[in-house]
Amino acid sequence: MVNIAKRMRHLKTLFSVRLGPGAAILPKDVKRIHLDFATKFNDGHLGPRHFFQHCLPRLKYHNPGVSMTVNRTTNQAGPATMTVFFATPPTSAAPPSTSVNERVEVINMKHRPESEILLKLLEVTKAVKVRATEEEELELRAMEEERARSEVDRERNRLFIEEKRRQEALLAQAKASLV
Questions:
Q1: Which of 8, 20, 32, 47 could covalently link to 67 via disulfide, CB atoms 3.0 to 4.6 Å apart?
Q2: Rounded to 10 degrees, what is the CA torsion of 159, 163, 169, 170?
Q3: Would you state the pLDDT for residue 132?
Q4: Torsion sign, CA atoms 61, 57, 18, 12
């Protein structure tokens, strides 16, 4: 069984789903988000791909009621778009109809970095970014200190192993010269 401290460190990395780029609460009128981009990152599809991998999981974590669909095509020359569907409240003068009234905003993601795509989404939807609490900030600092200590330990172990291998090589060379 793996050391419990090691498992806890891996669980704390899941902490990054709650905070970071894309951690935002969308308004109630946002009903669904649809991404459409190519599977490969060539020809301007790298930003949408990074947005899909890094920001979308955080958005989905904070907005489980918003449907988020992704269509990945093989057409590299095709567009990379994000479509945001808003529910528009029916006017009081008009009778309620059975069809859903939706306002649609399309964001072009091609040749744009993930940060720019996220800013455009936050601007269009008027979403509120999630801020870290004091407890979460303390936890983030502790995780960063743990990473720094781990780096120092890795370097120390690397030097120890190199020295051990060097001594074994010298010993093997001395034994070979005696024979």
A1: 32
A2: 150
A3: 84
A4: positive
Strand stretches in 24-147, DSSP E:
24-25, 30-38, 67-73, 81-87, 102-108, 128-129
pTM for the predicted model, two decimal places = 0.69
* Burial degree of 26 (CB within 10 A; 0-12, 13-18, 19+): buried
**pLDDT tops 90 at residue 177:** no
Name the residue type at position 94: A
- What's the Cα-to-Cα distance from 45 to each of 76, 91, 117, 143, 170, rounded to whole Å? 8, 40, 12, 32, 53
pLDDT (mean) for 62-86: 90
Whether residue 56 contacts residue 111, with contact meaning beta carbons closer than 8 Å, is answered with no
Which is it for the CA torsion 18, 22, 23, 29, positive or negative? negative
152-166 core/surface letters (b: 16 or more CB in 10 A; e: else): eeeeeeeeeeeeeee
Tokens of 112: 């744009």
